[in-house]
Amino acid sequence: MSHFDILEEKIVLLLNKLKDNHLLINKLKIEMHGLQESNVDFKTQISKLRSENDNLKIANSLLGSKENKSFSKRKINNLIKEVDFCLNQLYEIK
């Protein structure tokens, strides 16, 4: 076998590995994109569940539960402040 044949064989092997690497990279990019979409979905779901949990805590404390009573009071006070702020802005417009 000549040096050129050996060299050609090695080049063919390297090109095959390069092609395999490109295929693997494309496959991993597709997988990564799918995982990123799942991650966004999970973050949205977590946000909704946290909001629902906060609402349930408020409802629970309003029904007489002593747990989270201070949380509910803060939430109600913040809502009252927001309403007052909006009313003040409406009065200033008139």
Summarize the structure.
This protein has helices at residues 3-62, 69-93. The chain has one domain (3-93). With 94 residues, the protein is an all-alpha fold.
Global morphology? elongated
Radius of gyration over alpha carbons? 31 Å
Largest sheet: none
Total count of helical runs of at least 4 residues: 2
Structural class: mainly alpha
Summarize this structure as a short list of keywords or feature phrases.
94 residues, mainly alpha, single chain
Question: What report would you give on this structure?
Answer:
- The chain has 94 residues and is mainly alpha-helical.
- It has one domain (3-93).
- It has 2 helices and no strands.
- It has helices at residues 3-62, 69-93.
- The longest helix has 60 residues, at 3-62.
Helix and strand arrangement:
Elements: H1 3-62, H2 69-93
Helix pairs in contact: 1-2
